[in-house]
Design goal:
Layout (H helix, E strand, L loop, with lengths): L2 H29 L1 H8 L5 H15 L2 H14 L4 H14 L1 H8 L8 H6 L1 H18 L3 H26 L6 H9 L3 H15 L2 H11 L7 H14 L1 H7 L5 H32 L10 H19 L3 H11 L22 H28 L6 H29 L5 H36 L6 H27 L2 H4 L2 H25 L4 H32 L5 H10 L3 H13 L18
Helix pairs in contact: 1-9, 2-18, 3-5, 4-5, 4-14, 4-15, 5-15, 5-16, 5-17, 6-12, 6-16, 8-9, 9-12, 11-13, 12-13, 12-16, 13-15, 13-16, 14-15, 15-16, 15-17, 18-19, 18-20, 18-21, 19-20, 20-24, 21-23, 21-24, 23-24, 23-26
Length: about 600
């Protein structure tokens, strides 16, 4: 083997790793919202968790990435430790898909059908189609092009590695090296080190499959190496858990214990049975299919054995990372940066967090409005706490979204990020107005300001409309429903009209001696906050609609809606205006001054 073979080998490994990374990221990006939906289906059922881990790993082609996501979810409080265990087990099974995909390169035969089943025959065609789609396509077509291109590069790298390694078959030292790997301990260590360096068990299995072209890899050497590869892949999660809360650290240790215990059990069973019945294939030369079969059998058997004992693995992890009496309750991380490695999942988590922020704003506002009638110290304190929480949400979300914006996102994910960036500020302002309402309610209490029955009736109508627009806005935002968002602006116009009418009716009552000037001061504060809350709801709805249409000109949109003769807008406006009407005045108009006649 010459130095040029080494250069070729290095290039083959580079192409193989890059192709795998490109294909995995493109698959994850193309899956987008579907992957978010899969990951949002968290369940305490071990079987469903197992299937979840398998599905996600099959999509993103990396068990390490799935495990890191599990650590991130546990750290964020989105997943319980016992749920993460079954997901991790499923990830180990799902990662075998890559091995089977690569094993097709080992197909040999003279028939046209056999040749066409070998990926090395048709992957160049996929590469050509992929680069064409990538260069001239848009959005989803570019994503599909990257998947095809990644697979083509991966297979080209696999083929290059195999050719570069072929001369090693004539090197005595290389043959002796693999003879030494028949020692299970040395084989396990070699597999673990290789995978820890590459940070991918799929990649290390692929390299082992490429090594079969030398003829030096026997099943007696391959089995312990494969076991070690599964242990090596745990390094990624262990590193990722640094700085996380205790449950996240325990999740990483569960991954380690699962693979270590599985390796011990499998090796004991394998070598025990070989001692009893002497496997005929034990000293035979392995091929790509054989490597894929061993890898799959190990993961499936280990999972089948240990899945019923997932609670024991959980207890073992808790013993490793125990709670101490001096520990305070650890808070979950609002948005875990580990999820940024899988942008579509991070976007989904950010959207859920934005929905939580919106819900806190809604609750705070409804609570604040109740204190204008009956003051309650506990409710007032709760509103202030919620406002602090919303401020924290805005800071964390803003920072997280800026980092997400730097990632390569799908069109849908990019729209979600833009929507969040344009709306979280308005939600924060709604919570500020809730605090302002609390201050006004406190003034009403301190000055013992009494509302007339007519004033209470007017406020009830306006507040019902404000609550309606807030509820509609939050619901539309949480469901990403642009159709529902289109109903916000007509209602906002109704609220503006109600505010003006309340002021007019108050002045009339003031002239009639029914209301007091002190009530007028606090009423003006309330009306200002209610009107601005409706304005922020309008901003949120417009942002949702405009971002969905890939444009953002608020003034143009509002001008078109209000003054463009929209029949739909007018119909909705009349509907809401008819719903929120004031009762007739119960007092008499002030008598006319005869001197003025």
């Amino acid at each position: 083997m010459t130095i040029f073979n080494v250069f070729t080998l290095m290039g083959g490994i580079a192409m193989f790793l890059y192709g795998m990374d490109l294909m995995g990221k493109a698959l994850e990006q193309t899956a987008g919202s579907k992957l978010q939906g899969i990951l949002s289906t968290m369940t305490s059922s071990p079987i469903r968790g197992l299937l979840l881990g398998m599905a996600v790993t099959a999509v993103i082609q990396s068990s390490g990435a799935t495990t890191v996501m599990a650590v991130g979810f546990v750290n964020s409080g989105l997943m319980e430790l016992h749920q993460a265990i079954s997901v991790i087990m499923g990830a180990n099974v799902g990662t075998t898909v890559t091995g089977w995909l690569l094993s097709l390169s080992g197909l040999e035969g003279d028939s046209f059908l056999t040749k066409m089943m070998n990926p090395t025959a048709w992957s160049p065609i996929l590469g050509f189609i992929g680069i064409w789609l990538y260069m001239i396509g848009k959005d989803r077509k570019r994503g599909v092009g990257k998947i095809l291109l990644g697979f083509s590069i991966l297979m080209a790298g696999m083929n290059t590695m195999s050719h570069a390694m072929s001369p090693l078959a004539d090197e005595p030292w290389f043959m002796d090296l693999f003879l030494s790997f028949k020692n299970p301990i040395l084989g396990v260590i070699a597999g673990a080190v290789l995978t820890a360096v590459l940070q991918s068990s799929s990649a290390s299995v692929g390299i082992l499959q490429a090594l079969t072209s030398t003829g030096a890899v026997t099943y007696s050497a391959a089995v312990p190496i494969i076991m070690g590869q599964n242990i090596g892949t745990t390094v990624t999660a262990l590193i990722s858990s640094a700085g996380a809360n205790k449950n996240a650290k325990r999740t990483a240790f569960v991954h380690l214990y699962f693979n270590v215990i599985g390796t011990i059990l499998f090796l004991c069973g394998f070598y025990g049975l070989n001692a009893l019945i002497s496997f005929a294939f034990f000293n035979e030369t392995a091929n790509t299919f054989g490597i894929a079969i061993v890898h799959t059998i190990f993961n499936v058997v280990t999972t089948a054995i240990l899945l019923p004992f997932n609670r024991l693995l959980e207890k073992l992890a808790i013993l490793t990372v125990p709670d101490s009496p001096s520990d305070k309750k650890q808070e979950n991380t609002l948005l875990d940066e580990r999820l940024l490695t899988t942008p579509s999942v991070a976007v989904g988590r950010a959207m859920l967090t934005g929905g939580d922020m919106a819900e806190i704003c809604r609750t705070a506002l409804l609570q604040a409005m109740s204190t204008t009638r009956v003051w309650n110290d506990a409710i007032a304190d709760e509103v202030l706490r919620k406002e602090d929480a919303v401020d924290h949400y805005e800071d964390v979300l803003g920072t997280y979204l800026v980092k997400l914006s730097a990632k390569h996102l799908s069109v849908d994910d990019n729209r979600t990020v833009n929507t969040l960036l344009h709306t979280i500020g308005d939600f924060e302002r709604v919570s500020d107005h809730a605090v302002n309402i609390i201050k006004t309610a406190e003034e009403i209490r301190d000055k013992d300001i009494k509302f007339s029955e007519e004033a209470l009736n007017d406020l009830s109508v306006l507040e019902a409309a404000v609550q309606d627009i807030v509820n509609r806005t939050v619901d539309a935002f949480q469901k990403c429903d642009t159709y529902a968002a289109g109903k916000i602006e007509p209602l906002e116009q109704v609220v503006d009209g109600l505010v003006r009418e309340v002021k007019t009716r108050h002045i009339a009552r003031l002239q009639a001696g029914v209301c007091t000037i002190e009530y007028g001061f606090v009423l003006d504060d309330l009306l200002t906050n209610y009107e601005r809350i409706a304005d922020h709801c309008s901003n949120i709805a417009v942002a949702m609609i405009e971002v969905a249409e890939d444009k953002f000109d608020t003034h143009e949109y509002l001008a078109n809606v209000k003054h463009g003769g929209s029949v739909k807008f007018e119909r909705r406006y009349e509907k809401y205006r008819g719903r929120y009407t004031f009762p007739p005045e119960a007092y008499s108009e002030p008598a006319e001054n005869p001197a003025e006649n």
